[in-house]
From TrEMBL:
It comes from Methylopila turkensis. Keywords: 2Fe-2S, Flavoprotein, Iron, Iron-sulfur, Metal-binding, Oxidoreductase. The keyword Flavoprotein applies. This is Oxidoreductase. It comes from the Bacteria. Coiled coil: none annotated. The lineage of its organism: Bacteria, Pseudomonadati, Pseudomonadota, Alphaproteobacteria, Hyphomicrobiales.
């Protein structure tokens, strides 16, 4: 786990932004200001069992008196969101890391966003900043309905006439081709579930967007439930040691078990903290953190595996 300051923050306000999304305002119990952050940043929320989950900051980066996060309740998830919805009531304590930004605003003359459901959270603070700077912005927000679209009022206020909403239950299912053809100097940000990311990447590719102009933040691992893990061997380039990775263990777990210090955060293939290089082998990429171009030599050992063997640049 990466070493990051963990603060005990107090829940100042907890309200349901939609029937399944809890919007939390967190403050320090004694200090007036929290560590600064940039739009797109997230914090780690530490659970009682020591595990962590990442949540994008969705408030105003100029206002350091509080952090705002939004937690979508995943009834079929691994319990973290259910715990947050039950335990993080007003006055409760939340163990939260200092912010880190894996999804920064890029240099561009035109910024196009596709935000799906809870994926609105990083986009909201990014759009606010870009609009305040007078940048050219276009935002597509997809959800089942307006009632199920978290932070819709806040996003509308930030976007003005630059917002297009796509509510499937109201007959407007998102068409990824709506991102339009690539124009030089444009950048495309996509935040939401893995299937939205893939659909937008595919459409953007067909519309001439270069890979490096598309930036994605997954809000859900894209793991295929039918995937059957097989054992494989992992060789460490620095020592030549060969480690056996059984079918029921992750490469990350096996590396740590053999004394290799590896950072990690989400352990879901989403955040990119554990990513390392590899030099040989056929990797089965199962993450949503590494770009297509980088998959030739980068692997996320928390979820990805190899066919037969892989040589890691460790
Ligand atoms: S720990 Fe987040 S991608 Fe591996």
């Amino acid at each position: 786990m990466t070493a990051r300051i963990v603060m005990k923050l107090k829940v100042k306000a907890a309200r349901l932004a939609t029937p399944s999304v809890l919007h939390l305002t967190l403050v320090h119990p004694t200090r007036p200001a929290l560590p600064a952050w940039e739009p797109g940043a997230h914090v780690d929320l530490r659970l009682p069992d020591g595990k962590i989950r990442q949540y994008s900051l969705c408030g105003d980066p100029q206002d350091l008196s509080a952090y705002e996060i939004a937690v979508k309740r995943e009834d079929a998830g691994r319990g973290a969101s259910l715990w947050a919805h039950q335990a993080l009531v007003e006055g409760a304590t939340a163990h939260v890391s200092a912010p880190r930004n894996n999804f920064p605003i890029r240099e561009a003359t035109r910024h196009v966003f596709v935000l799906g459901g809870i994926g609105v959270t990083p986009g909201l603070s990014m759009v606010r900043k870009l609009r305040a700077e007078g940048a050219h912005v276009a935002v597509h927000f997809c959800a089942r309905s307006a009632a199920e679209a978290p932070l819709l009022a806040e996003l509308s206020a930030a976007c003005g006439d630059r917002l297009a909403t796509w509510f499937s239950s109201e007959g407007r299912r998102f068409d990824p081709a709506a991102v339009g053809p690539y124009a030089a100097g444009s950048v495309l940000y996509v935040c939401g579930p893995g299937r939205l990311l893939q659909a937008v990447r595919d459409a953007a590719g067909a519309l001439g967007w270069p890979d490096e102009s598309v930036h994605a933040e997954a809000f859900q691992a894209t793991l295929d439930e039918n995937f059957k893990p097989e054992p494989f061997e992992a060789k460490l380039a620095s020592t030549g040691a060969t480690l056996h990775v059984p079918a029921d263990r992750s490469l990350l777990d096996v590396l740590r078990e053999h004394g290799v210090t590896m950072p990690s955060s989400c352990e879901l293939g989403v955040c990119g903290s554990c990513v390392c290089g590899y030099t040989e082998g056929v990797v089965i990429h199962r993450d949503a953190a590494i770009s297509t171009a980088d998959r030739q030599d980068r692997i996320a050992p928390c979820v990805s595996r190899a066919r037969v063997s892989v040589t890691l640049d460790l």
